[in-house]
Amino acid sequence: MANHKSALKRHRQSLVRRSRNRAIKSVLKSSVKSVRVAVEQNSQEEALAALKAAIPVINRAAGKGTIHKRNASRKVSRLTRSVNAMSEAGAQ
Fold this sequence. Notes:
Elements: H1 5-40, H2 44-63, H3 69-91
Helix pairs in contact: 1-2, 1-3, 2-3
């Protein structure tokens, strides 16, 4: 570990950011998983509710820089597509 003042401060900052990013990613993964589980169980109402809850979480993670904005956009798009495909299959 470095010994000068600026390097010590940088190390402290990285520890804080790491813990914050890990917490955000944990919430993100849980919300995405809840949408996927609802889609697998073919419960359309739960999937829509989970998707509505997951989209702000994904966008917040991208806004804070935890994940890239294109990664967030891709996640939202794929989840929305899966929920829409489930609702279309149920309508037929």
